[in-house]
Amino acid sequence: MDSKMEEKDFLACCGSKKFAEEMTSSGPFANLDQAIDAARDIWFNKVDVNGWLEAFAAHPQIGQNPSAKHPSDTSAQWSKGEQSTALQTATDSSLQELSDWNARYWKKFGFVFLICASGRTASEILAELKRRYPNRPIVEFEIAAQEQMKVTELRLAKLFSTQVKAASISTQNPETAAKKAGEDRVSIIGAHLTATSEASAGKTPQISPRTRPPITTHVLDVARGSPAAGIEVRLEMWKGNQPHPLFGKEDEGGWVLEGSSITDKDGRSGQLMSIIDALNPGIYKISFNTGKYCPSGFFPYVSILFEIKESQKWEHFHVPLLLSPFSFSTYRGS
User: How far apart are CA 214 and CA 199, in angstroms?
Assistant: First the structure.
């Protein structure tokens, strides 16, 4: 399918040279899903910290146009399109405020504020920037990497769309093919943005089948500044007599094991549940055997409970754990 895709094509999707090289050597891909699966594995497991920073640096600040010296014309053009809603909804004062907060963010974290901007207004992006600004650097670094992956997936979809249309055009009447290519391109990008807005509005989006389990996790050892390998992880779902576990009440027998695994060298767990399209709404508990990982630490184990609503069953839930011997924290990833 992607016989015509080169390293420069993947570099337009993600500004890390290591990523582009690995994608090129991993191809050809039969379809978009295969490419996205490979991209996720490469980005999170093979690209190092320097590669992440290189990819971040390829993005212009939100509210600004890409540099004339941008290494990829295609990437620069896509960046303009992805920020179009923000720029169309911005005022002079909001652009100035974005610029000020971008500068504060850069000074604190050392890299550009990264967010998948497609379909987001200037006020939405500014609110998210302010919300993430208090994060600790290690937390924000991981969030930025997740946002980069969202951008990469969107651009891979554009790249594959272009390849499909090019192959189709060669066998059609030129005028008819050009018209259809334009219509399909708008349809594909529009469907992506509609799914995002429907999810935000609580509607059930029509999406393609998943390529990974709907609940995933990984653990970062904050004290060592590295992923935490070898931690036992369990995922359970509440199926007790009560609708949900009650605070201060015994809940033995109400939890049913969905799956278990051990974190790898990158701190990521294996598959904790089946790959299903619609996740069963309910209360879930993910537990980490931190006492075995750090016997001298304060926590013998850590359990995190969270509830997934009916309106969220199509979403992906990434529940990372940031761990040190005497403290831990988590946040909702994507």
Answer: 15
